[in-house]
Design goal:
- The complex is a heterodimer of chains A (735) and B (452).
- With 735 residues, chain A is an alpha/beta fold.
- In chain A, the strands form eight sheets. In chain A, strands 15-14-24-23-22-16-17 form a seven-stranded mixed β-sheet.
- In chain A, helix 7 packs across helix 18, helix 8 packs parallel to helix 14 and helix 11 packs parallel to helix 13.
- About 1% of the residues of chain A have low confidence.
- Chain B has 452 residues and is of the alpha/beta class.
- Chain B is built from 18 helices and twelve strands.
- Chain B has a six-stranded mixed β-sheet with strand order 1-9-8-12-10-11, with helices on one face.
- The mean pLDDT of chain B is 94.
- Classes of the chains: A alpha/beta (735), B alpha/beta (452).
- At the A-B interface, helix 2 of A face helix 13, helix 14 and helix 15 of B.
Chain lengths: 735, 452
């Protein structure tokens, strides 16, 4: 790209050389001049000039101008309130108008102390009011969802929240209703604001109009501490502040990393922190006692039993990782298995092909792509929610976003992501008809982003090979984003591989000496449950009870990502520091491993030792050959009667979400997504109850019709598809 | 000066809603003439005519059209949008034109569309104008059948589709960018400018937006030639305008006058003066949003510059005559109530300021205001003026400030005497609709006629 043209502008008598078209609020700020704003927020798209707080004088124009709507043009002379009396008077007027009906209930408003309106009033505002009339009041608070409360009388109508809803998350649920002084923010048709990213409006709100029900009246800004850390609930790794008060996490705020998440968070990352204080959390080590079930034991007794059980397995040990471990923790566990126990058998949530490193790019590069291609059956928003926002942002910026899945813009058959990649890689006449347009478009494009969104046993080889072809054959800049299943799936896999040679898959059948279950996600994995059934000894570390803890012999209390120190590697391959926001109730995993190592003759540091994170680095890529991926994966299960079931793991699921009552409404509704034609032939209308059955299991679900979904396919969230096989019968439920 | 029918020519003698009648008096001849000219040549005629926008702002139409890129300079479609959302209180000229000379209007749209190279035009009709809508649609249908509108206008190879869209009852949708938002299906709220519609208007494409009367003038300009048209009226205010005369006057109604005619001529000679032996007190010369004139200023000519000199505006051409029964505080309150009700709520000064103005004016009218609050009222007007996103805030602040300025004594008496010197009498009879009626309308207590 060529360097941007520089222009000369003058702000308060300072001559500045800035890139043409740069916003004047930023331009002034760079020169150390603050232009106060409320509605202006560049992340929400073009400026709207609604609040008028940024009024400035522009030479040659009779009226004051909203500086937020101005961009740097050569010769522009801007005077802010600092040097222009007219601008100062205008700004003063606006602040008077804004405060006119604002209740000034700062002493009991949650925003008080960290409120932009309070701050700007303090700096620029009048000391008293001339308003002698009763202020506008509304019913309050209005729960716009179980997570968000709205105090309308505090609202200054900057429209940040509605703009977020309309132009960033594109859910269109927050709207302004009524007109003029009676304008209020509301949800569309007063339905609850149920969306993956709703919580962002809390932070966008420049006053205390939108507050979270989980933080409301819980703390004052001067008695909290904000700990910078990274969210550990999905592979995006959003940077966050964990607000703590009296040793407890009170809320999660975003800490804007422009390359990773642009400051947006999903509601899981923002609200699931309450699980840390769940009453049913395992707080003491548990030891299985014959007939009597479990007994709470001392830490040393538990560790002695664990060491004994592991030793007795004589190397027949399987380690089941959850992918939510820190790199340091995974490395320590890998050492225990490989070095002390002599086992090289692990169950990893994700694997990673080192060759993908050639196509590594920050998530923000998605927005710069001409074409974004999303392959895989899992909805991106459920797997790595922020990636969905990046894709939307790319589409708004003019990029073509092609989704290849049974409900996508090209509705391909389920389970065919690998074949799709292979076909697109080959190109030419052999590309199936439905992919031809995509194939041609891909080959024309100079900047391509490829997103792989489903579990992949090959570690991303299929999409990697396609990227290689587009790059080598077409000379395109290609970025590849393989969305792992687990938050630190990438770092854990790397740490496991780095800890030793040899990699054995767990045996398909037969007795296992010992099974080590690391974390709640592993404990809820059906594959792990199956392994636990044939293990002589099961050692589990978990925060909560599950079917697998019930099978265990020793259970050690686990911790949350908010209670650990260490490193997470996100889906971009970016190592990020996780900091302990609050102390865990007992030892954390690293300390358990250190003390277990002691018993097994291994020296493991009980803290995240410097240098350990380097183990998460992937080996160099140049030796990898992309030419041989095997596309014959998981195809051909489509035969038979009934409809093909595609399951997905919803974002709002898992042990943490289940323990936050306010998030219950976000969990997937008991729905089955039906293709339009399939619904027609069965006489099913949208919203009707239908019976879904498979192999003796039958369940009533609400029909949701999707015109885009491929005929012959149904989609059901995991938690409503339990017990179903790959094909299901769908019929209208008896009235 | 005085009455002169250009737009409404023949409209008294014939039913010009019928295509045949319109053609009989030379209808659509201007379109044929224009289609035989280069686009630039038609534009040059408009520029030469120096015709200023009849919607309210008075911006020269030809210059506005010349800001648009030429069809070969842009990859985007060019749109023509017609502002038929006539809602300025006191204004009812566009409805007269749509009802009586719809074909002149349609012809103007087609010529303007040809001039800028648009292939689609949108007419945004005020929601309450049901009959007008029906007459317009019927005329369009006739014009379509006759080949004046459609994919190939009169065999020229150039086509124009005209879409008529009805608003849903919001004053703000008469503001051009608010209109565009509404037309696109969004909440009717103005956009920040720049970009101006000529660059990025409807669907982010170059768009020319003109008022009904402005476009209805176009066929006449093409017929007479721009220079000849420019000789009508006075300097800088060429041509005729349809003035809506209302209020305390004997013969209210629409009168097409040559620009430069004085208010006195319109009110006394044409309108028959003030009824019931009352005295003229004030005149609102251009719709409720413009500053008021006193009886002493009745000799001001109705042209753009003269009005500007008098500190007011020609606006939408709505001349509201006010006699001596009127309490200007009540008038201000009623006008402020209108703007408070119609403020869209997007920008702060208008949303908050109009409400405050109403609160203050009510207090003054009730005789409970302090001296300081009269100053606060003026200050509020001053702080709204020029600080808003669109002209609605100014439209509320300017008249109120002028009422206080020109009738300061009357406002003072409200404070000094602790009440309205006019008592409880409804002194706004015939000047503005009472607010109760407005609210009754809102509550559905007044039946709104609907057509099958």
């Amino acid at each position: 790209m060529s360097a941007p043209e520089l222009v000369t502008v003058t702000v308060d008598d300072q001559e500045l050389q800035v890139p043409k078209g740069q916003g004047m609020v930023e331009t002034a700020l760079a020169a150390g001049i603050e232009i106060p704003v409320f509605c202006y927020e560049p992340r929400l798209g073009p400026p709207v000039g609604a609040c008028r707080m940024c009024l400035c004088e522009v030479e040659g124009l009779p009226k004051l101008q909203a500086a937020c709507t101005l961009t740097a043009q050569d010769g522009l002379v801007l005077r802010t309130a600092r040097t222009s009396e007219k601008a100062a008077e205008g700004q003063d007027a606006i602040l008077e108008f804004i405060l006119l009906n604002h209740p000034l209930d700062c002493p009991d408003c949650d925003k008080g102390g960290e409120c932009p309106l309070q701050d700007l009033t303090f700096r620029f505002g009048p000391g008293s009011t001339r308003m002698q009339f009763p202020k506008r009041t509304f019913d309050k608070p209005i729960p716009i969802s179980p997570l968000i409360a709205l105090d309308r009388e505090r609202c200054i109508l900057c429209y940040r929240c509605t703009r977020f809803s309309e132009t960033v998350a594109e859910d269109g649920q927050l709207v302004a209703v009524n007109r003029g002084a009676q304008s209020v923010i509301a949800t569309f048709q007063d339905e609850p604001y149920r969306a993956h990213f709703s919580g962002n409006v809390l932070e966008l709100c420049p006053v205390g109009a939108l507050t979270s029900t989980t933080y409301r009246f819980r703390a004052r800004p001067w008695e909290i501490q904000n700990v910078p850390t990274v969210c550990g609930l999905c592979p995006v790794g959003c940077n966050v502040w964990a607000t703590t008060r009296e040793g407890k996490v009170a809320r999660i705020l975003s800490r804007n990393h422009p390359d990773v998440h642009e400051g947006w968070l999903c509601d899981k990352g923002r609200f699931a922190h309450e699980h840390v204080r769940a009453p049913d959390r395992i707080r003491t080590p548990l030891l299985r006692v014959r007939r009597r079930g479990f007994e709470e034991v001392s830490e040393d007794d538990a560790l002695d039993a664990a060491a004994e059980g592991l030793r007795a397995a004589e190397g027949s040990v399987v380690v089941a990782f959850s992918g939510a471990e820190t790199v340091e923790q995974a490395a320590a566990l890998a050492r225990v298995a490989r070095k002390a126990l002599g086992s090289h058998s692990a169950l990893l949530p994700d694997d990673w092909d080192p060759g993908l490193d050639a196509f590594r790019a920050p998530l923000s590069a998605i927005r710069d792509a001409e074409v974004c291609l999303v392959v895989g059956d899992d909805p991106v928003v459920e797997r790595a929610p922020i990636v969905d926002l990046w894709l939307r942002s790319a589409r708004r910026a003019g990029s073509e976003v092609v989704t290849l899945n049974p409900g996508g813009s090209v509705p391909v058959a389920p389970g065919t992501a690998a074949q799709v990649c292979a076909s697109l890689r080959e190109g030419g006449k052999r590309v199936p008809k439905e992919l031809r347009a995509t194939s041609e478009r891909l080959r024309e494009a100079k900047r391509v982003a490829l997103v792989w969104s489903q579990d992949d046993e090959t570690g991303g080889r299929h999409v990697g090979a396609l990227a290689n072809e587009l790059h080598e054959g077409g000379g395109a800049d290609v970025a590849v984003y393989v969305l792992p299943r687990a938050p630190n799936g990438r770092g854990v896999a790397a740490a496991w591989h780095a800890a030793g040679e040899g990699d054995a898959k767990p045996a398909e059948e037969g007795e296992i000496g010992a099974l080590v279950v690391s974390g709640d996600e592993a404990a809820s994995d059906p594959r792990v449950r199956e392994l636990a059934g044939r293990a002589r000894f099961v050692l589990t570390t978990a925060m909560f009870q599950s079917e697998v803890t019930a099978w265990s012999h020793v259970v050690l209390p686990g911790t949350s990502y908010l209670e650990r120190d260490g490193t997470f590697v996100n889906l971009e391959g970016r190592p990020q520091r996780v900091r302990r926001a609050v102390a865990p109730p007992g030892p954390d995993e690293l300390e358990w491993l250190s003390r277990l190592g002691e018993r097994l003759g291994l020296d493991i540091a009980p803290w995240a030792a410097p240098g350990t994170a380097e183990q998460a680095e992937l080996p160099p890529a140049d030796e990898f050959a992309w030419s041989q991926p095997d596309p014959q994966v998981s195809a051909g299960k489509s035969a038979g009667p009934g409809l093909e079931l595609v399951r997905f793991r919803p974002l709002f699921s898992g042990a943490a979400v289940e323990r936050v009552p306010q998030l219950a409404f976000q969990r997937p509704a008991p729905e089955v997504e039906l293709a339009w034609d399939d619904a027609q032939t069965r006489g099913i209308a949208a919203g009707e109850t239908v019976a879904v059955s498979s192999n003796g299991t039958s369940r009533e679900l609400r029909a949701r019709l999707n015109r885009r979904l491929r005929t012959g396919v149904v989609r059901i969230a995991d938690e409503h598809a339990e017990g179903f096989e790959d094909r299901v019968q769908v019929a209208k439920a008896d009235a | 000066m005085g009455l002169r029918a250009l737009l409404l020519e023949h409209a008294d003698a014939r039913d010009l809603t019928q295509l045949a009648e319109y053609e009989a008096v030379g209808g659509y001849a201007s379109l044929r003439k224009a289609l035989g000219m280069e686009r630039q040549a038609v534009l040059d005629e408009l520029l030469a005519a120096n015709v200023r926008g009849r919607g309210g702002a008075g911006f020269p139409m030809g210059r506005k059209a010349s800001f648009l890129p030429k069809p070969d300079e842009t990859t985007k479609p060019i749109y023509l949008v017609v502002n038929a959302d006539e809602s300025e209180p006191g204004t009812f000229k566009d409805r007269e034109l749509m009802l009586r000379v719809p074909h002149t209007f349609v012809e103007g749209i087609v010529i303007a569309g040809y001039t800028i190279g648009a292939s689609q035009a949108f007419v945004y009709v005020r929601g309450e104008y049901l009959t007008e809508y029906e007459v317009l649609v019927a005329a369009l249908e006739e014009a379509r059948e006759a080949g004046y509108v459609g994919p190939d206008v009169l065999g020229s190879g150039w086509g124009l589709t005209i879409v008529v869209h009805r608003g849903a009852g919001a004053y703000i949708c008469g503001e051009e960018t608010g209109l565009l938002e509404s037309l696109e299906g969004s909440r009717g709220q103005p956009r920040t400018k720049p970009p101006f519609p000529a660059v990025s208007g409807l669907y982010a494409s170059p768009t020319l937006i003109n008022n009904v009367e402005t476009l209805a003038t176009v066929p006449k300009i093409v017929e007479m030639g721009g220079e000849a048209y420019a000789r009508i009226g006075v300097e800088n205010s060429a041509g005729t305008r349809v003035f809506s005369l209302s209020g305390n006057v004997v013969r209210g109604g629409n009168y097409e006058l040559e620009l430069g005619t004085t208010l006195r001529e319109l009110i006394y000679d044409i309108g028959g003066g003030i009824p019931d032996g009352r005295e003229l007190k004030a005149i609102i010369p251009g719709g409720s949003s413009v500053p008021i004139l006193t009886a002493a200023e009745v000799d001001t000519p109705l042209d753009f510059d003269a009005m500007a000199e008098a500190g007011t505006m020609l606006g939408s051409g709505a001349v509201i005559v006010i006699d001596d029964r009127c309490c200007t505080v009540q008038l201000g309150l009623r006008v402020a109530q209108f703007y408070m009700h119609e403020s869209c709520g997007k920008c702060t000064p208008c949303r908050e300021g109009t409400r405050w103005m109403v609160q203050l004016l009510r207090k003054i009218e009730d005789g409970e205001a302090t001296q300081g609050e009269l100053d606060v009222l003026l200050d509020v007007c001053d702080r709204i003026l020029g600080n808003c996103l669109c002209p609605l805030g100014d439209a509320a602040a300017m008249p109120i400030a002028s009422y206080v300025a020109k009738f300061r004594d009357e406002h003072q008496r409200h404070i000094d005497e602790g009440g309205c010197p006019f008592g409880g009498e409804s002194s706004l009879d015939g000047v503005v609709a009472p607010v109760d009626q407005h609210h009754a309308h809102m509550r559905g207590q007044i039946e709104v006629p609907t057509h099958a």
